[in-house]
Design a protein that fits this description.
The complex is a heterodimer of chains A (204) and B (529). By secondary structure, chain A is mainly α. Chain A folds into two domains: 81 residues, Orthogonal Bundle (Cytochrome Bc1 Complex, Chain D, domain 2), CATH 1.10.760.10; 83 residues, Cytochrome c-like domain (Cytochrome Bc1 Complex, Chain D, domain 2). Chain A contains nine helices and no strands. In chain A, helix 7 packs antiparallel against helix 9. Chain B is 32% helix and 19% strand. Chain B contains 13 helices and 22 strands. In chain B, the strands form seven sheets. Chain B has a four-stranded parallel beta sheet with strand order 2-1-15-22, covered by helices on one side. Chain B has a four-stranded mixed beta sheet with strand order 10-9-18-19. Chain B has a four-stranded mixed beta sheet with strand order 14-13-12-16, with no helix packed on it. In chain B, strand 13 and strand 14 form a beta hairpin. Chain B is globular and about 80 Å long. Classes of the chains: A mainly alpha (204), B alpha/beta (529). Chains A and B meet through helix 1, helix 2 and helix 4 of A and strand 12, strand 13, strand 14 and helix 10 of B. Chain B: Belongs to the tryptophan 2-monooxygenase family. Chain B: InterPro entries: Amino_oxidase, FAD/NAD-bd_sf, Flavin_monoamine_oxidase, TAT_signal. Chain B: Its EC number is 1.13.12.3.
């Protein structure tokens, strides 16, 4: 990696092109991830592939394993989940670990809001989430709760609604997913879900 | 002169002045369409001492055609292709070829024979796709007739005729007979008496009788036009019992398959390149000065003051290149994942292009069993998810053949196949094919499937915009943003067709000529020849 970084600097030092220091080439073999999740995994709403930067290694590992084992993405209404299942089917544990490490290191701009809700109403709803996910949505590994800040609001909304509909979190082996499915019972309407996602998306 | 018809006049002119006089006169009278296509856009050649450059993103049909025309004008092109192969969705697989499906890499197991190939993307060319046919001629791509319909092929619907397949000729003949009978009855009941003269009503009844092969009393009782239940060489023909009107109305065939060979893009005869559709791609590559850079995935596209800057990744390294202009063939829905400095409106337009879900299966069959059933080319239609079976019309009577075992584009139906493993798809397809050709699975030697919405670097085929988005963004996307042009079938009214891709390229190159001329006028004296 250091050799590559050096080459990289030599190649681009002094050129006018604005290549940020945080940018690194995609590890070979993982280019597939960027086809949908975008350059630097910045996310692409058109493919419904969320930004991944900022997610913790342990959370990514858990989700990749869940996809691989069919714990997540098996519901017939979870189209993108089934797409992810196909992507993880052939991954080894060391592949998963390497991918999770890389994702943790990618940097991309924090997404712009795309949905508009009642932030105050969302804030009230979020009080029920803060115990595990933290007041600022920073996440808490001890509770198994991932970081929520910096995630695309449209993706948050989809997942909240998936938990509500039992599309995600219905598998007995999905321990944390089942907790979430129970927890979202406080989201009682579609506007609730929108307000909550809108609030979370502006957490820093 | 006043007393002769236009047709008589033309015959007269033709006799006196020869065919050239006839042609000119016909054009003047507006009888023949003026030839609207006279070849690719002529690009203004670069001035002496100038070395203009262009970046072409994506080595699909639109990208390659654009590069070819620009190169002719002395513009140096760099073609960046994300995939390991050029061609985009023009993909023909043979023995050993890879289908780079996300999560399900497949290798084609067909025998190593020239006649065993599968056109995964485009597979047929109608005679009015003038742009594509121009390139086939110019690039020396040999063509052959492709039978796109066979009246001997079948229609099948689980919920119609007890699920028994019916020959298309029988269905067509019966539909025509039943409709003609209704027309005859209607005329016989004086329903048209207000509309036309008695004489014309009589003609109409005669027409319906002839058209539908009705009895003297205007009844349809089956027709030997659809064959016979006996050996009609040695015995009097005995027509099949006709389908009942209610059964015909309840069947699904008339929703689509009935018109399969009637629509303009499928009007016969159609053509295909000899040996596979990728003959078109090979033709372009033979004529291009610079070959595409493969495995080069674009990460950033920036319009700069005097050009376009693109960063791509290849072999674990980032590369940044600049050129005077950029022609972008990348599926528009990927652009939100690629860094750029486009305007919000332009990006919104790109985001409005949605993924299409075309899906196909192909089986290698140990025997061409369909030929023994009288089917030489064409398509059988079914209401099962596989939708269509295509029989090859090339290499007739060879031992083996590639049977297209599914062809669907409905997002929901294709979605069923997309979720399956490649093996599951082949099994599901075979179960449906068995309904049309009982026992045919025993001839399956291997198979391969292509879910375009799951293909690496493509993630779709047959892109679409909603009618509202079309109104709002289509013309915007046809125009350059800075020095960046979007091209590809996605920027046409004919997504999923190579002709659409070529039309988009032509359209962009016309705008390119205008842009270059405006740059020339606005200063740069060195451009003036």
């Amino acid at each position: 990696m250091s050799l590559k970084s050096t080459l990289f600097l030599l190649l681009f030092a002094g050129t006018a092109s604005a290549v940020h220091a945080s940018e690194a080439p995609t590890p070979e073999g993982l280019e597939y991830c960027t086809v949908c999740h975008g350059s630097q995994l910045k996310g692409n709403a058109n493919i419904k592939a969320p930004r991944l930067g900022g997610l913790s290694k342990w959370y990514i590992e858990r989700q990749l394993n869940n996809f691989k084992q069919g714990i997540r993405g098996a519901h017939t209404s979870d189209v993108t989940g089934s797409e992810m299942q196909a992507m993880t089917r052939h991954l080894t544990p060391s592949d998963i670990s390497a991918i999770a490490s890389w994702i943790g290191k990618t940097e991309s701009p924090t997404p712009e809001p795309t949905i508009h809700g009642d932030i105050e109403a969302g804030k009230n709803l979020y009080q029920g989430c803060a115990a595990c996910h933290g007041a600022n949505g920073a996440g808490n590994q001890a509770m198994g709760a991932p970081r929520l800040s910096g995630i695309n609001d449209w993706y948050l909304l989809t997942q909240i609604n998936h938990f509500r509909a039992g599309i995600r979190g219905s598998d007995q082996k999905d321990v944390y997913g089942q907790q979430m499915k129970a927890a979202v019972s406080m989201v009682q309407s579609d506007p609730d879900a929108i307000n909550l996602a809108a609030y979370i998306s502006q957490l820093k | 002169m006043l007393n002769i018809t236009r047709r008589q006049f033309l015959n007269y002119v033709g006799a006196a002045g020869g065919s050239s006089a006839l042609l000119k006169t016909s054009l003047a009278l507006g009888l023949m369409p003026d030839d609207s296509y006279s070849g690719p856009v002529h690009i203004t050649p670069a001035a002496k001492g100038e070395q203009p450059t262009a970046l072409i993103l994506g080595a699909g049909v639109a990208g390659l055609a654009t590069a070819l025309e620009l190169e002719k004008a002395g513009i140096h092109c760099t073609i960046l292709e994300a995939s390991f192969r050029p061609g985009g969705r023009n993909l023909t697989v043979r023995n050993g070829d890879k289908i780079d499906e996300m999560g399900n890499t497949q290798i084609c197991q067909f025998d190593k024979q020239d006649n065993l190939y599968f056109n995964c993307g485009p597979a047929r060319i109608p005679g009015h796709h003038r742009r594509l046919l121009h390139y086939c001629r110019a690039l020396n791509v040999p063509l052959q007739i492709k039978a796109n319909s066979s009246k001997m092929a079948y229609f099948h619907d689980d919920n119609s005729l007890d699920g028994k397949p019916k020959r298309i000729i029988e269905y067509h003949t019966d539909v025509r007979g039943l409709m003609s009978e209704l027309l005859w009855k209607s005329a016989d009941s004086h329903n048209f008496d207000q509309m036309m003269s008695e004489e014309d009503v009589a003609k109409l009844m005669k027409f319906s009788q002839t058209y539908g092969d009705l009895t003297e009393n205007g009844k349809y009782i089956g027709s030997e036009r659809a064959g016979s239940t006996t050996d009609r060489m040695l015995e009097f023909p005995t027509p099949h019992a006709p389908i009942e009107l209610k059964a015909m109305l309840d069947s699904q065939f008339w929703y689509g398959g009935l018109l399969g060979a009637e629509l303009y893009d499928w009007c016969e005869p159609l053509m295909e390149p000899v040996g596979g559709m990728d003959g078109v791609i090979k033709g372009f590559l033979r004529h291009l000065k610079t070959q595409p850079v493969l495995n080069a995935q674009v990460k950033k596209i920036y319009n700069r003051d005097n050009g376009v800057e693109v960063t791509y990744e290849q072999g674990g390294k980032l590369h940044t290149v600049q050129a005077d202009y950029c022609f972008n063939n990348i599926p528009a829905y990927f652009m939100a994942g690629i860094d750029n400095n486009f305007s919000e409106t332009y990006q919104a337009g790109l985001d409005s292009v949605k993924r299409g879900h075309l899906f196909k299966i192909a089986y290698q069959m140990s025997e061409r069993f369909w030929e023994r059933d009288g089917i030489y080319g064409g398509i059988s239609y079914t209401t099962d998810p596989i939708n269509q079976l295509w029989y090859p019309s090339h290499d007739i009577h060879a031992q083996k053949g590639i049977l297209l075992g599914a062809y669907t584009w409905d997002a929901k139906v294709s979605g069923i196949f997309e979720k399956m493993t490649p093996q599951e798809r082949l099994t599901a397809g075979a179960l449906s094919a068995e309904k049309i050709h009982p026992g045919c699975s025993k001839y399956i030697e291997n198979g391969i499937s292509i879910p375009w919405a799951r293909m690496n670097h493509q993630m779709g085929c047959g892109m679409r915009m909603s009618p509202e988005d079309f109104d709002k963004y289509y013309h915007l996307l046809q125009k350059p943003e800075g020095r960046h042009f979007m091209i590809g079938d996605q920027i046409s009214h004919h997504s999923g067709w190579q002709e659409g891709a070529l039309a988009s390229s032509e359209q962009a190159l016309k705008q390119f000529n205008q842009l270059v001329s405006s740059h020339t006028k606005s200063g740069a004296a060195s451009h003036v020849a």
